[in-house]
Design brief:
Layout (H helix, E strand, L loop, with lengths): L1 E5 L4 H14 L2 E5 L9 H7 L8 E4 L2 H7 L5 E4 L17 E4 L8 H6 L2 E3 L12 H16 L5
Parallel strand pairs: 1-2, 1-5, 2-3, 4-5, 4-6
């Protein structure tokens, strides 16, 4: 299973996602452009020494990402979805896609994914932090597929 971040803007979020992925045994796809320099020390600070335990693949745009990841379903996590993420049937090779912090994904990306789901939350709030959302989503997907680390 993999986590994909579409045009992430905050280095600390990317580092936190990388740390979560390392702990859970998932890979990370970063879809450029990013809102920070890749060598940003904030990425390394958030990921800490876990950065050496996760496979990170950078893609030059969404189309390059799609071409590189054929055969796996792309599951978009978005507040615009109607299906709850806990009611979705995950596969062990799914790619869990998250949009950029300020704007999510484009309409073209939204139209090209295999499924869209949302994390449940109270209606009076807008959204969860990107890294928090990725951790919640990945843990549930791994639990469903029986691939949680023991």
């Amino acid at each position: 299973m993999r986590i994909a971040l579409f045009e992430p803007e905050i280095a600390g979020n990317v580092g936190a996602v990388m740390r979560t992925a390392a702990c859970m045994g998932a890979g990370v796809d970063l879809i450029e452009p990013m809102g920070f320099r890749w060598d940003d020390r904030r990425v390394r600070r958030a990921a800490m020494d876990y950065i050496d335990h996760v496979e990170v693949v950078r893609h030059d745009g969404f189309e390059a990402f799609r071409k590189a990841r054929t055969g796996s379903r792309i599951v978009l996590f978005t507040t615009r979805a109607t299906q709850c993420s806990y009611d979705f049937d995950y596969r062990d090779d799914d790619i869990l896609l998250f949009g950029k912090e300020s704007a999510g994904v484009t309409d073209a990306v939204r139209a090209s994914v295999d499924a869209s789901v949302k994390l449940p939350m109270r209606p009076e709030v807008r959204s969860l932090n990107l890294a928090t959302s990725a951790a919640i989503a990945l843990t549930e997907a791994l639990r469903q597929t029986g691939t949680l680390p023991r």
